[in-house]
């Protein structure tokens, strides 16, 4: 099997989009809340950065309302929201005001006006096969240290699930707090997985320990 790259560095250069575990690219941008420097906005908080193709579009409207309706849940989790599209601040303001009136919600988070597509390029939100002038529907979750912990891109025709985003946020915050991992379909209150041992000796000890649910030395669960 052959490819068009002579070495790994060439692949990295072509695939310049952010990756999991790497620092989130910093930027300054005009928003509906004034100019924002992202590293300052992110400081001591988790941040959910999400993009949408355009203002005054149906799927995006339902998503913005969905995020706004869950604002208190994000606040409880020390998490800030920030949206983005390649539209002007004036368009964003008009759209936000329209949504607040139409759906009786308060959109408290800023929306980035990325007219020159600088942030969209920086975060790999432009997929030419879909559009060269509109950002795809992407979500990044960035931890208080400024590290990208989660990212996903949705098709243009499929709206995001806000409850699922909150579930992922809950899982990552629990993982950091208790040094565990979460199993398939985990939700708050479910048992969590104890990280597997790294030596034969520790594996033997694991089989002798008492856990609420232990299938084998490498798969044991406990209460969170």
Key attributes of the depicted protein:
224 residues; alpha+beta; Glutaredoxin; Antioxidant, Horf6, Chain A, domain 2; 2 domains; 5-stranded mixed β-sheet; 10 strands
List the helices and strands and how they pair.
Blueprint: H1 8-14, E1 28-31, E2 34-37, H2 38-42, E3 46-51, H3 58-69, H4 71-76, E4 79-85, H5 89-103, E5 111-113, H6 118-122, E6 137-142, E7 148-154, H7 162-178, E8 192-193, H8 200-208, E9 213-216, E10 219-222
Parallel strand pairs: 3-4, 4-5
Antiparallel strand pairs: 1-2, 3-6, 6-7, 8-10, 9-10
Give a concise summary.
With 224 residues, the chain is α+β, with helices and mostly antiparallel strands. It is built from eight helices and ten strands. It has two domains: 20-159, Glutaredoxin (3-Layer(aba) Sandwich); 179-224, 2-Layer Sandwich (Antioxidant, Horf6, Chain A, domain 2).
